[in-house]
Amino acid sequence: MKKLNFILAGILLFSISFVQAQEENQTSKFSIYAYGGIGYTQVKNDNEPDYDLNVNTGEVLLNYQAWDKIGLATGIGYSVLSGGGFNSNGNFYQERTLIKIPVLFTINQTIAENLIMTANFGLYGQTIIKDEFQYLNRTDKDVYEGFNFGAQLGLGIGYQFDERLGFGINFNGQSDFNSFETTSNSNLNDEQRHKSFTSLGIFATIKL
To answer: How far apart are CA 177 and CA 105, in angstroms?
Structure first.
């Protein structure tokens, strides 16, 4: 959680500094969208009991305003999942880290004076970069592996401070299409995916 907050804070501070260095007539069709939030996800298994995990997540997107209100965006998402459950090996505490690359349509709309609405929807691919199951007497690492795909939706409302900078509250939801598989050295034989992956947090949008 601390690592994620430092990353988002560093990106946000850099972006604000970059914006302040620009002249008013140098705005372009590009903007940066940064989001950080907390939530939960359901872990759906094929052969083991389902369970829930807490979520700390963030995204940084580069958006191109392709049409009047609609843009195209891609970037990187970073999520840390943690929580308890049980399987064939017993009770466990799990920590998992995911890296996600989304490809999205975006909508940015002024709905009142200084009041903005943002939305994004599209597809993503993601992979597990850390996966630990901590049992009473041992820790199993890299239990699940692979690369999967899914769809996501984000909705936000915020305040536009000036021509370039806006802040607000955002809701994100996503769900995997296909599953991760257990590794060859795991003593489990299972597949799992994340369902109802939801989070609520804050966003910043910065026009370049």
So the answer is: 19
